[in-house]
Design brief:
Keywords: Cytoplasm, Repressor, Translation regulation. By secondary structure, the protein is α+β, with helices and mostly antiparallel strands. It is 39% helix and 27% strand. The chain has a 6-stranded mixed β-sheet with strand order 3-4-5-2-1-6. The longest helix has 19 residues.
């Protein structure tokens, strides 16, 4: 599998894992054409509580590990589960509680990215 196909498979599994736990406002930010960007792609979503944010992060890690045999390079924010970051190097997943996401307004910060909004399946 080439790099592009691998990354697409990773993105698909991440989105599925988020949808499995009813994550909201899922967006994919393609940062590949932005100079000095910290990753090629961000996946951002929201949860309604620290319990749901933790469940979303757990779902992403588990699905990617079980179906793609891949583990994140780094995970942070699990202690308070206000904003959990799951870093797969080329793809970084940001799972926010709604008010924290609004406060940091990452959509505005990375406004130059090509943004794909994923429609909720429920």
């Amino acid at each position: 599998m080439n790099k592009t196909a691998e990354k697409q498979a990773l993105l698909d599994k991440i989105v599925e894992a988020i949808q499995d736990v009813k994550g909201e406002d899922i967006m994919i930010f393609d940062l590949s054409n932005i100079e000095n960007s910290v990753a090629e792609t961000f996946v951002i979503c929201s949860g309604n509580s620290n319990t749901q944010v933790s469940a979303l992060a757990g779902s992403v890690e588990k699905k990617v590990r079980n179906e793609l045999q891949d583990r994140p390079w780094h995970v942070e924010g699990t202690e308070n589960a206000m904003w959990v970051l799951v870093d797969y190097v080329s793809v970084v997943v940001h799972i926010f509680q709604k008010d924290v996401r609004e406060y940091y307004d990452i959509e505005e910060l990375w406004g130059d990215a090509v943004i794909t909004k994923i429609e909720n399946e429920f």
